[in-house]
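Self-study notes.
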Amino acid sequence: MSEAVLDASAVLTLLLGEPGADKVQATLPGALISAVNLAEVISKLCERGMPSDQAALAIDSIGVEIVAFDGEQARLSGELRPLTRILGLSLGDRACLALARLRNLPAITADVAWAGVPDCRVILIRGGGTRMTVSRGAST
């Protein structure tokens, strides 16, 4: 059963053995990743010189469930733009947040800017791994 949605930064942290990898590992197997974020991970691994087939195998080996980017996620990603523009979040970031909101799961990321997104549960894997729930007037 899925307990989290992984951002590309979280998957890369795990695959590259960076600080915070243990927090990502704790969500596996079974964490979700949007197909948009999967494309980001493969892009970054290929930029580092890894062949795309090897990048795909590395992702398969960690046990994430890939979720197709559908119309509902696209709509919510678009709706998130006005809330996230000032924070500098990309389409990939918003795709992750949209999937997390639709599945009522936290989004796992290394990007501290996400802590400022309203109405989204975000777990930061660096900086103490602070878990932040931001929703109109409440935080935990």
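Second protein, same conventions, sequence then structure:
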Amino acid sequence: MRGILRVAIKDVQVFFADRNGAAMTLLLPILLGAMTGTLFGPSPTPKGVELLVVDNDHGARARAFVEAMVAHDALAVEEVDEATARDRVGRGKSPLAVVLPPGTSDALRPAAMFGAATGRLVLLRDPARQVEGKLAAGVLQQLMMEQVSRRFGDPAAMREIFTHLRGTIGGDAGGAMWRAFFDLGTSLIDKLPADAGDDDDDALGLRPPLTLEQQEVAPTDDDGLSGYDTYAQNMAGMLCMFLLFMAQGAARGLAADRERGLLDRLSASPLTGPQILAGTALGVVAVGALMAVTLYAAAMAFFGVEVRGPWLGFAAVLLGTLVFSGGFALLLAGLGHTEKQIENLGTFAILVMSFLGGAWLPSFLMPGWLQTVALALPTRWVTDGLAAMTWRGLGLVDGLTAAAVLVAWGAVCALIGQWRFRWR
């Protein structure tokens, strides 16, 4: 028994001998659990579904409809013009936008509910945001009916209804009876006090005055380019994460070569230190390129993933991702002095960056504040850039912007890694 305890104590002492590695091992599950809880737990300050509102009617009833949207707890409303709404939804910057066309105020008259729908609302939706689209559609239908039904007690509105219905009656004997009925109703309404319609009334089960039409918004006019592709989104995330793990392996290889004295022998060769590190980064880029080509070849062949944006932009984002991976390998090699430190530090950094950057699940599922924070991470630019060039079908500028950010990240990581790298 005493021998068993000694072996156990030895292993515990070995574990805590590397204090940094031990701290990472203990803290990593706590931090990941906290982040997962933040994502899936209830928000302390729910703001509702973000909804851009475009009021092209500018009438009193349309204005009241917009104010009802603003007051609803399930919606977070921002009023913009139509061009801004289409651009933001098409680029995935906002999930939804509703467009109130001219004639909306007229369609929200109570009398309009007794005929065919006189107009339509257009709900613009990011192809990836189907759940939010269904929720917003239900809320808009509810608010629409409330806006009309509350005016059923208004004498002017009721008079308009009777006048409208009287005009639809034919000229036969039965029609004459109905016309007399509506005339009587109109005369009774005229005797009501002017403020008789102040209280809200329930709807009478009639048809909505406006037809609600959902449209997926793509950055081009080609309908074939619309539609969220979960395979394209997830393939980008998996490529990003496994490139970083491959870079971690290269950094551990440098640490192992240092411990075996191989780096000392290489430094005696004509190669300079920066050249040796640059060769390591180039090896990461080469292997990563093979990974990227293999992954996207399989994704296109078996899962129907398409490059809907410019191929040049797609290639630029991939190249930027590879450059960042090479720089990340040097950063880990410079910050970690042993293989164990590199393993713990690298695993922590990769998991956190992958989680926040949208490699595990789309970033739009995260709370708004977390999405904003994630914009500072290179992994977010990888997943967003590849999404822009594949299922979103955005333009060349979007791809080149993401590529430039990733190349800059790779250069900064490489410089820090070279500065901190220890050869002995």
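Instructor comment on the second fold: The beta strands are 49-55, 75-79, 96-100, 119-125, 210-216.
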